[in-house]
């Protein structure tokens, strides 16, 4: 039997780590080939869902937009595109859509780096048909002027008046773009150059008359626009009036921010006219040069307005003439919820009128009177008005020279109103959650 016993042999493979489980599936090899050659042959719609996901995960985020814009909707792919280009990516600011973020920021970058008379407008216009369905908001933080070669002038004294000298430097013409962005709802523009350093010149921060004409006409054609912010751009009375002329009767504009500009009384009168011929819900003209007459014009419009919910007049020069006018308008207005009158050189006469407003107006929820010289008598008047108020849940009277006792009384009324508002909200929530059959 021993002679018939089989001899056992060891077979040693060429690759000791080889395993049948490591052999890629033919289907995966095909899908990998599709991903590698996607730019030449964009084969995606015919795949099964699992196969499509496999290919999308392997696509390069550097593929041309002309290929991917209308073909790929996968959020994972656009997330990789965003992460590759920008370090900070807060998708919550873009409706939680990575594709919207990519197209909005891509177009913003193109506009911010556009040099008039040098950059071909086609570079921007080519993006419009690809991303117009996704572009809802643009935040333009700089606009470059055209390149002008001029001999250097050495002067002993350089003053702010030099901003008015030299050739006019017009910027990007929004007229070629806005009417094509059919889903644009919010536009924020600042006419400045970021990080100019030692190349600083005043005309790098100039909102020219031609710029104003370009922008005004473009805004008139952008019928979906809801929010316009044009701040820190040296908008004066003339430019403000031109802007307002094209915004009158705008069908969708709901918020206007012209803060940190040079708007005076003439511009304020135009804004008052806009309040009567629009559906604005929020107006911000803080840090301008509006005085008493301009405030009176805004107050006249406010007295009959039925849409405005928020008004910010902080850091102007209303004085008691303007402060009293705005206050009296609130005796007739029953829609405004938030009012900011901080830093306006107002005193006890304004506080006296506001006392009557606080007693009679139970719509206003927030009022800011900080950094005004209301004085002890003004504080006493505000306490009298607040004692009859049930709606104010925010009242800022810091740095108003109001005595401590008056401040304490006002704060107590505000706390009572806050508690009342919370109970009301809880009751409404409970009512909505209760079944109709109970």
Question: If you had to describe this structure to a student in words, what would you say it looks like?
Answer:
It is a single chain. The protein is α/β, with parallel strands linked by helices and 438 residues long. The chain has 15 helices and nine strands. It has helices at 26-36, 49-56, 65-68, 75-85, 98-112, 122-125, 128-131, 209-221, 237-247, 265-276, 292-304, 319-329, 348-360, 375-386, 404-433; strands at residues 137-140, 186-189, 227-230, 255-257, 282-284, 310-312, 338-340, 366-368, 394-396. It has a nine-stranded parallel sheet. The longest helix has 30 residues, at 404-433. The protein is globular, with a radius of gyration of 31 Å. The N and C termini lie far apart (94 Å). Residues 151-165 have low confidence and may be disordered.
Largest sheet: 9 strands, parallel
Number of strands: 9
What is the residue-mean pLDDT, rounded to a whole number?
A: 90
Distance between the termini: 94 Å
Please give the order of strands in the largest beta sheet: 1-2-3-4-5-6-7-8-9
Computed CA radius of gyration, to the nearest angstrom:
31 Å
Element string (H = helix, E = strand): HHHHHHHEEHEHEHEHEHEHEHEH
Number of helices: 15
Compile the SSE list and pairings.
Blueprint (H helix, E strand, L loop, with lengths): L25 H11 L12 H8 L8 H4 L6 H11 L12 H15 L9 H4 L2 H4 L5 E4 L45 E4 L19 H13 L5 E4 L6 H11 L7 E3 L7 H12 L5 E3 L7 H13 L5 E3 L6 H11 L8 E3 L7 H13 L5 E3 L6 H12 L7 E3 L7 H30 L5
Parallel strand pairs: 1-2, 2-3, 3-4, 4-5, 5-6, 6-7, 7-8, 8-9
Helix pairs in contact: 1-2, 4-5, 8-9, 9-10, 10-11, 11-12, 12-13, 13-14, 14-15
